[in-house]
Design brief:
Layout: H1 26-44, E1 52-53, H2 57-74, H3 77-94, H4 100-110, H5 112-115, H6 118-130, E2 135-136, E3 170-177, E4 183-189, E5 195-202, E6 211-215, E7 218-221, E8 228-234, E9 262-269, E10 275-282, H7 284-291, E11 313-314
Helix pairs in contact: 1-2, 2-6, 3-4
Length: about 325
């Protein structure tokens, strides 16, 4: 078994559900748990005391997310599934606990079969190498600082820093036919959006399917830059010649909403209209077709800024 770094596999849930259920980004959950637990893990390890992030928690979360998303883009579909299996096991065994004993038992015993895999370990190692994190502890360096990644061993506590805006990240997504028989698209984000776009593809051999793009407006939001709720309701079953973005969809309830050929993506932009985050989901081989602009991907309608899809996190 390869050596495990105690703080390098702090994981939370990746619920695996169908396209009609809300679910969260694996990178979002991984990094949220790291942000919450890593300083406590250092203290529990006994080498340091009174540890805290050098930067604001929101900066730490965004930097971790950026590193994880970069590695996710580079990974194959099979490697992503192995990574997800490991996360599922840790979620079941650790159950959100930051306690070192719980983590160690799960790491070395309960999830060894799921996580002791070269591809999984390489994924985490690459994320933590790219994520340039720094934690400050009262006890100074106090040992092999290389174990703690970006920890620089400084003893001076940070103070007087200005609040940093919450990074704009997609927390959950959903596409389903609602009880009124309409095609409904929902997303929730960590903070306010300035704009959002929803794309859908039916990926069929020889590009025989259909694709669409719609705006995804905000319908409610929390004050002071809190979470934003996005929603679009489209009339299904429109004829191709009558298709109107933002109003109707050619896709049919009871057919396309339950089809394995469908791939969906949502992209969000911040209040300055700068691109911020992207989520894409569907069957793995179909998602791969869309991300690589494969031969089976339909192009009936224009996709705005298609290069942004390269940075999508697969949900």
């Amino acid at each position: 078994m390869r050596p495990w770094r105690l703080c390098s596999l702090l994981l939370l849930a990746l619920p695996f559900v169908g396209s009609c259920d809300l679910f969260a980004s694996p990178c979002r959950e991984l990094c949220s748990y790291n942000t919450d637990c890593m300083p406590e893990q250092l203290e529990d390890a006994g080498a340091y005391g009174d540890c805290e992030w050098e930067d604001d928690d929101r900066d730490v979360l965004k930097e971790c997310m950026d590193a994880c998303k970069d590695e996710w883009k580079k990974s194959s579909s099979s490697d992503r599934e192995e990574f997800a299996t490991c996360i599922r096991c840790f979620h079941d065994e650790v159950d959100g606990s930051c306690d070192s004993d719980d983590l160690t038992e799960s790491m070395y015993d309960d999830c060894e079969d799921e996580c002791d895999d070269d591809e999984v370990l390489d994924f985490f190692e690459d994320v933590y190498e790219e994520w340039n994190w720094e934690i400050e502890c009262d006890y100074g360096a106090g040992g092999d600082t290389g174990l703690w990644g970006g920890f620089d061993g400084t003893t001076e506590a940070t103070s007087g820093t200005s609040p940093t805006p919450e990074p704009l990240l997609i927390d959950s997504v959903q596409v389903a036919c609602n009880t009124d028989g309409n095609w409904q698209v929902d997303a929730m984000t960590s903070t306010w959006t300035g704009d959002a776009v929803y794309n859908a593809w039916e990926v069929l051999p020889k590009a025989a399917g259909w694709n669409e793009e719609h705006t995804l407006p905000s319908i409610s939001f929390e004050p002071d830059g809190g979470p934003d709720t996005l929603q679009a309701i489209l009339t299904p079953g429109a004829a191709v010649g009558d298709h109107t973005p933002g109003t109707n969809t050619v896709f049919v309830c009871g057919t396309h909403d339950v089809s394995d050929a469908m791939v969906y993506a949502i992209r969000v932009y911040d209040v300055d209209l700068a691109y911020a985050d992207c989520a894409i989901w569907g069957e793995a081989d179909k998602v791969e077709q869309v991300l690589t602009d494969g031969d089976d991907v339909s192009a009936h309608n224009t996709i705005s800024n298609p290069e942004e899809l390269e940075s999508c996190v697969v949900f």
